[in-house]
Amino acid sequence: MSGKGPDHTLIASGIACRRSERLLFRELNFTLSAGQALMLRGPNGSGKSSLLRLLAGLLPMAEGTLTWRGRPVAEDRAAYRADLAYLGHLDALKPQLLVRENLQFWADLIGATVPVENALAKVGLGPCADFPAQHLSAGQRRRFGLARLLLKPVPIWLLDEPSTALDAHGQKLALDLIARHQAAGGIAIISSHDDLAVGQVTTLQLGGAA
Ligand SMILES: Nc1ncnc2c1ncn2[C@@H]1O[C@H](COP(=O)(O)OP(=O)(O)OP(=O)(O)O)[C@@H](O)[C@H]1O
């Protein structure tokens, strides 16, 4: 990934998010350059997932501006989306397909540059490649999500609770992947209730009651 460079900066200015009629947050600001991470913290319902969905372009911004590579994202959403990977709560697995088929589906969709077998092996799912996806455990499903991130290097990772359901080895794996992504110049924005030991990280506390 050619993630390093002066224009690889993500700037959020005065961002607000509304869900239904409720204003979840407003006047939210941050700047992230190549190699940096942002950890989203806050109680249940404070808006961490909503912020990640907003940054992924899946929710509209009520106010504010997002700037990537020196241009407002609103000017070229497709270019911005091509530069990010979003790991949400849902695993997006088709239960009747094999694990390898599920990943191949994603690989075809995004134009993967890494073979699915390699991505599965890196997250410890090589032996499960020919299982029907419905047989995967919760932690294995989370590993599948991490495998999706590895299919194609992109500069921005948006990770919603990446360590949920992972065992100690899986948590270390997730941290290693994030560290490698950052070392290659990637940006990571992560929501977590766990104390993940992420480097070059700034914490953004979201308030509000559950
Ligand atoms: N589709 C929706 N329509 C309306 N409100 C929603 C919708 N999805 C979530 N909300 C509300 O938005 C608020 C923020 O939810 P969100 O999932 O962003 O919080 P969170 O900080 O990620 O919570 P958690 O720590 O429990 O994962 C909550 O009050 C939730 O009920």
Automatic annotation (TrEMBL):
Keyword S-adenosyl-L-methionine tagged: no
Organism's domain of life? Bacteria
What keywords tag this UniProt record? ATP-binding, Cytochrome c-type biogenesis, Membrane, Nucleotide-binding, Translocase, Transport
Is DNA damage set as a keyword in this record? no
Gene Ontology MF terms in the entry: ATP binding
Domain called ABC transporter: residue spans:
10-209
Q: Which Gene3D superfamilies match?
A: P-loop containing nucleotide triphosphate hydrolases
Entry's InterPro entries?
Answer: AAA+_ATPase, ABC_transporter-like_ATP-bd, ABC_transporter-like_CS, ABC_transptr_haem_export_CcmA, P-loop_NTPase
Q: Please give the PANTHER family that the UniProt record associates with this protein.
A: ABC TRANSPORTER I FAMILY MEMBER 1
What is this protein's name?
Heme ABC exporter ATP-binding protein CcmA
Source species taxonomy: Bacteria, Pseudomonadati, Pseudomonadota, Alphaproteobacteria, Rhodospirillales
